[in-house]
What we know:
This protein is mainly alpha-helical. It contains 5 helices and 4 strands; from the N terminus they run ββαααβααβ. The mean pLDDT is 91.
Amino acid sequence: MKIYTRTGDSGTTGLFGGPRVAKDDTRIEAYGTVDELNAVLGCVRCELASALRDDSLESDRRELLTRLDDRIVQVQHELFSLGAELASPHPDQFDLRVIGADHIDRLEKWIDETEQRLPPLKQFILPGGSPTASQIHFARAVCRRSERRVITLADSVQSETPIGEEVIVYLNRLSDWLFVVSRDVNRLLGREDQPWQKP
C-alpha cells in the first residue's frame, strides 16, 4: 500500500465508512487533535525512557515511572480506537465504540492512587519542572483541546449518529490524570512544581 494516494490533493479526505469531506471538517479536526495528543504522549514516553536511564534513580521511583510508561501505552491504544470511532459517521455499524465507563473508572482510580502520593495543591502551578513533566503538561493542554473539538463535533451531529458521551468524559478525565501525573513525575525526579504568582 502506497503512503501517498493523491486522493487528498484537493483538500478532501474520506471518512471511515462515509463520504469524502473537507480536511478542516469538524470531524477531521476532532480525530486529528486526538491523533496529535497521541503523538505528544509518544514524546512523553521518550522523555520517560531518558529519565529511566539515570542509574542514580531509586528503585521505587524507577518502578513508578515504569508503571507510568505502561499506562501511557495503554492510553495510546485507547486513543487510537477513540480516533477510529470519531473518524466514522456510523461507528455502530462498524463496531467502533470502544471507550466506555470501565475506561473512565480506571482513570479515576489512577488519579486517586497518584494523588495519595502528592501534597495537597494550594495554588496554581506553572507548566514545567523536569523535561518529562513539561511534555506531560503539553499533552494535558492538547487533551483539553481534543475535548473541545469533540464537543464541537458532538454539537454539529446531534441529528445524526451521536458522539458517545463516554468519549467526552474520557478525555476530560484523561486531562485530569495527566495533570496529577505531571506533578508526580516532578516529585519522582526531584523537581519542584513552580507556583503561579500574580504579576
